């Protein structure tokens, strides 16, 4: 009975593609296809015995404590030094769970490299032993993307690789390592009159944002990571180092060969480990003004957004917070806005441009029963406003002490936004759930935070039902099941529904070409029973 996990594990972590019964010993699987070394045999036995039906997020220290585990540790220590390898309980627990509701699983060992070359050597060791490799940035994801579903080695590329390698002021670009967050980059370039505008809310690492295809509040004007990334340095599973646009290349456009940069953007660590990113910078606008305006209904607020975009107003930010979210933000951030749906708006440009933009949007809002605009022009006032918006998730958790949140997002064409937002709110109410809603509605992207009691499986089932219906409705309206959170473990089935069998098959073949042993972040994006 204890051997039940082995077929499942081997189908993911090994090249073996043959069937065998649960009672057959692992070492009998030597039909000329795979001759595992001593370490691989021990790792597979221990991981199979312990991981397949484990629910709790707990470290599997037995693997690291075996002779073979000690051998692996010694090899890793020879690359990064003893102080940069850990299998301590608190360390592996931290590296197995992100901020989402999906139950995490711990890696067996966490490694802290200091250079791309060290990452390369780590990958070579793991490939030699057929050990899963899980990249780790800051752990702020929401779809279980860092969970070590098959155990293995977690490569923390943010702790020691934390330098801004180059800043090209005149070319509006910078090259950063994985330990650089968006706020750190902005602090460095602000004195040059530049900024990096992609803002997902959390102070995520820039390379992690590339890995998930992140966007955020400024995407309506400045684009997502996919429009703001020029080049990536990536280490493949076998240790090869590639530059997706060419070594040192940073042009704003190129028609040379396949677009490898876009291939790795949003790949969530399943194709390789991003060890540096060349990203776009933008000039800090001459004038910035922010405003908050309330509406009687969500429909009124969304209609204002659609009409503003149809009038070609170059908005910098257009954020929707429904009445439940406004209540949460008021209580958590000490605000006093009316508990009705609101738009948080920001305008960038010259003084005359900002004045013109605000007049147009104010007229449109008035036509949709919007209230008075409350302005935040000074930097400290704008910071307070957007800090409250960025703390929406924590405000929601505080709204119902002891709860967890199933946080999900979709993105649809802007014309479909009013109907989907209205339908989703009705569905949340019908299921008797508390589900605050926020959205980067300027580009058709919105989120729901569906609150549930961790001890109530039925309530969690209802949350999943609402989230899945929301995603399927988005797909039916010509949208996507996720605009910026990524797929991870939480949306694998929905991804298959969106792309269809042939589309998923192409993705699997790309994965198989770059990672034939399926070692890079296994169990993410694709369902675990897929054959590559």
Kindly describe this structure.
- With 532 residues, the protein is α+β, with helices and mostly antiparallel strands.
- Helices cover 38% and strands 17% of the residues.
- The chain is built from 18 helices and 18 strands.
- The protein has helices spanning 5-13, 38-51, 61-65, 67-80, 89-94, 116-129, 182-189, 206-212, 219-222, 260-264, 298-310, 323-333, 351-367, 379-390, 392-399, 417-430, 457-476, 492-514; strands spanning 85-86, 109-111, 133-136, 153-156, 164-168, 173-176, 194-195, 229-235, 241-243, 273-280, 282-283, 287-294, 317-321, 342-349, 374-376, 404-411, 437-440, 445-452.
- It has a 7-stranded antiparallel sheet, sandwiched between helices.
- Strand 17 and strand 18 form a beta hairpin.
Summarize the structure.
By secondary structure, the protein is an alpha+beta fold.
């Amino acid at each position: 009975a204890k051997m039940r996990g082995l077929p499942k594990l081997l189908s993911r972590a090994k090249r073996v593609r043959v069937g065998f019964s649960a009672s057959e010993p692992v070492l009998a699987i030597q039909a000329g296809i795979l001759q595992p070394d001593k370490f691989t045999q021990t790792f597979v036995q221990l991981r199979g015995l312990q991981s397949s039906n484990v629910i709790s997020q707990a470290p599997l220290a037995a693997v690291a404590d075996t002779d073979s585990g000690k051998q692996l540790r010694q090899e890793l220590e020879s690359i990064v030094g003893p102080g940069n390898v850990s299998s301590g309980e608190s360390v592996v627990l931290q590296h197995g769970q992100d901020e989402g509701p999906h139950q995490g699983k711990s890696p067996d060992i966490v490694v802290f490299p200091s250079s791309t070359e060290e990452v390369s050597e780590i990958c070579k060791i793991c490939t030699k032993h057929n050990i899963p490799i899980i990249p780790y940035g800051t752990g702020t994801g929401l779809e279980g993307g860092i969970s070590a579903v098959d155990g293995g080695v977690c490569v923390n590329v943010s702790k020691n690789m934390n330098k801004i390698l180059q800043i090209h002021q005149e070319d509006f670009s910078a090259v950063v390592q994985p330990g650089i967050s968006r706020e750190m980059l902005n602090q460095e370039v602000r004195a040059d009159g530049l900024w990096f505008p992609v803002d997902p809310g959390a102070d995520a690492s820039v390379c992690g944002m590339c890995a998930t295809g992140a966007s955020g509040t400024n995407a309506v004007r400045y684009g997502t990571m996919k429009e703001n990334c020029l080049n990536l340095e990536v280490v493949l599973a076998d240790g090869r180092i590639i530059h997706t646009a060419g070594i040192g290349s940073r042009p704003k456009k190129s028609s040379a060969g396949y677009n490898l940069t876009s291939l790795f953007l949003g790949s969530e660590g399943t194709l390789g480990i991003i060890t540096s990113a060349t990203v776009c910078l933008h000039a800090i606008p001459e004038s910035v003004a922010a405003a908050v305006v309330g509406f009687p209904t969500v429909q009124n607020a969304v209609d204002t957004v659609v009409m503003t975009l149809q009038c070609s107003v170059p908005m910098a930010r257009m954020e929707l917070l429904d009445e439940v979210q406004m209540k949460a933000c008021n209580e958590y951030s000490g605000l006093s806005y009316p508990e009705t749906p609101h738009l948080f708006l920001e305008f960038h440009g010259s003084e005359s441009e900002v004045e013109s933009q605000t007049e147009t949007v104010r007229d449109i809002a008035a036509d949709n029963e919007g209230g008075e605009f409350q302005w935040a022009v000074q930097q400290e006032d704008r910071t307070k406003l957007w800090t409250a918006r960025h703390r929406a998730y924590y405000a929601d958790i505080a709204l119902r002490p002891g709860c967890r949140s199933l946080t999900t997002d979709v993105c649809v064409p802007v014309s479909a936004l009013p109907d989907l937002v209205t339908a989703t709110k009705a569905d949340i109410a019908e299921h008797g759930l508390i589900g605050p809603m926020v959205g980067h509605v300027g580009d058709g992207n919105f989120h729901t935070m569906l609150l549930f009691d961790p001890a109530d499986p039925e309530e969690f089932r209802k949350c999943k039902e609402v989230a899945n219906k929301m995603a399927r409705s988005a797909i039916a309206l010509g949208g996507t099941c996720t605009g910026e959170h990524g797929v991870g473990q939480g949306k694998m089935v929905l991804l298959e529904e969106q792309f269809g069998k042939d589309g998923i098959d192409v993705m699997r073949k790309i994965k198989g070409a770059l990672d034939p042993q399926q070692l890079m972040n296994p169990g993410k994006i694709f369902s675990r029973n897929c054959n590559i």
